[in-house]
Amino acid sequence: MRRHALLRTVFALAAWAALSTAAARADDGRFERVLPVGDDTRLVVEHHVGLVVVTVWDRDEVAFDVDYDPEFYEFEVRDRGLRIHAEFTPLRGGRAAAELLVRVPTWMPVEVRGLDVDVEIEGVLAPIEVDVVGGDVFVRGGRGEVEVRSVHGGIEIQDAIAELDLSSAHDDVELHDCTGEIRVECVNGDVRMEGLSSGSVEIETTSGDVLIDGTLEPGGDYFVSTHAGDVAISLLPETDLTVTVDTFDGNVRARLDATLEEVERGKRYRMVLGTGEGRLIVESFAGDVILYDPKRGRGKRG
Amino acid sequence: MENRWTERISDYVDGTMDADEVRVFEARMDEDPDLAAAVADVRALVRDAAALPPVDPPAGLWTAIAGDLPPRGAAGPVVDLQEERARRGMVFARWQAIAAAVTLALLSGAMGWILRGEPAPSDGPPTTARGPAVETGVWVDEAVPARFDEENAHLAANIHELEVALRAQRGRLDEETLAVVEDNLAAIDEAIRDALRALGQDPDSSYLRSHLASTMERKARLLEDANRLSRREI
């Protein structure tokens, strides 16, 4: 019995401590708090209008620095064990902007959801997931899986080594120096990839242009499709790829030493580089396609 | 209008609900004018579709099919068509198949109707399910509709249901998002029309068929996103 009573006391103290630190909440429009976090804890941020900036430091703690108008929002941080959940709750219909700056350990996975929110995440070496309606998203870093969706904001990713799944209906998607499997979907936006190193790329856009400049790995699998946009892809001569280009009303050019064979007049082209082990399929219904050796450049267009 | 109710519209219109379900569904319609309007839309679509003249197979279709068949007497697996359709996710009501053709025939003007709540572009029976391009510019060759119906009917029916759902909830999207969705759907519809025209010129192109299907899939995904946003599931 004494043992049970002791356990009850310990549990009560633990619950009190958890409540006092976990349900951290502020109502004066400023919120500054540092919470210790254990392995495998994930940061989840839910925002409405404004800015979320996530940076890293070398402590196993999460530091919040939040600025908001208490007339329009409540802000609350809850520690749910494996999730630190930071959330703005709107109090009225207005769309006042609020800023949330947060520092996390580099290993901490980050998830941000919002309506009209610009998101910047720098230095996180863990999975990242961002899902916003409007607002631009900038990510430097990312490991494992990086998934970003913005309906009408742009997306820029730098230095990710990850499986990337990116979607922006109305704006551009840019990748710089990224490594890993990549999937991008746009409607009206362009897709630009520079310094790419990947064995698998899948890009689909309706009206946007596509530019790929980087290393396509031997034996890789690549697919690029646009309806009305132009496509430019740099290919090293030693890349082992079988290239197929389909078009309905576009022009196709190759500035490479290899020969682009016209399989079906004006509609389908084929080219084998090296052993032809990998596969690159390019489809452009009405846009122009140019495949070029980066040493020779794209040359004059048209 | 909740998704669980919109998902049952086809069952209600097809008469496949039991009496208890009908009673609950109709009670829900009394409380939810958007749901009632969506049901009326689907009923009108079914009525219009039923008034369509039968589509005759294009000349040469049987020759093409016969060319793909194995030689008479050749052994081959017997395929259960019901199982095969279920495996491919192609179990849908007759009206949905007809609606697919109608939906595509109306595609060019449909988004303005859906998003702005304007009257449907054609209140009478659609007349563009076959024959040369008319105002909507969708069909340009008789060979295309039959092939299209077969390959993309399920997708087109799915798009139609998503459009009906979005129409009912468009007021819950903010102006900027609505404008963006509308722009993007217009761009995709233009691409679909382009692909259909091209298929009219080159009906055997595997690239064009695949391009059409993937463009329609993109439209379905965008509509799903827009519906998700209108339900504030973000």
H/E order of the elements of chain B? HHHHHHHHHH
Oligomer: heterodimer
Q: Flag low-confidence runs of chain A.
A: 1-7, 9-23
Globular, elongated, flat, extended or rod-shaped: what is the shape of chain A?
elongated
How much is the average pLDDT of chain B?
68
Read across the widest sheet of chain A, the strand sequence of neighbours is: 9-10-12-14-16-17-15-13-11
Mean pLDDT of chain A: 89
Quote the distance from N terminus to C terminus of chain A.
88 Å
What's the Cα radius of gyration of chain A?
24 Å
The radius of gyration of chain B is 19 Å
Largest sheet of chain A: 9 strands, parallel, barrel
Derived from helix and strand composition plus strand pairing, the structural class of chain A reads mainly beta
Measured as a percent range, the helix fraction of chain B is 55-70%
> Stretches of chain B where pLDDT falls below 50 for ≥5 residues?
72-76, 87-102, 105-144
Binned, the helix content of chain A reads under 10%
Structural class of chain B: mainly alpha
Percent of residues in β-strands of chain B: under 5%
Shape annotation of chain B: globular
- Greatest interface (CB-CB under 8 A), with counts per chain: A-B, 28 and 25 residues
Termini distance of chain B? Answer: 17 Å
DSSP strand content of chain A? over 45%
Which features characterize this protein?
heterodimer, A: 302 residues, mainly beta, 9-stranded parallel β-barrel, 25 strands, disordered N terminus, B: 234 residues, mainly alpha
List the SSEs and their pairings.
The complex is a heterodimer of chains A (302) and B (234).
Chain A: H1 2-22, E1 24-26, E2 30-36, E3 42-46, E4 49-57, E5 61-67, E6 73-79, E7 83-90, E8 98-105, E9 110-124, E10 128-134, E11 137-141, E12 143-150, E13 155-158, E14 161-168, E15 173-176, E16 182-186, E17 191-205, E18 210-226, E19 231-234, E20 241-247, E21 252-255, E22 261-264, E23 268-273, E24 278-284, E25 289-292
Parallel strand pairs in A: 3-7, 3-9, 4-8, 4-9, 9-10, 9-11, 10-12, 11-13, 12-14, 13-15, 14-16, 15-17, 16-17, 17-18, 18-19, 18-24, 19-25, 20-24, 21-25
Antiparallel strand pairs in A: 1-6, 2-5, 5-8, 6-7, 20-23, 22-23
Chain B: H1 3-6, H2 9-14, H3 19-31, H4 33-50, H5 61-68, H6 81-87, H7 94-116, H8 143-169, H9 175-201, H10 206-230
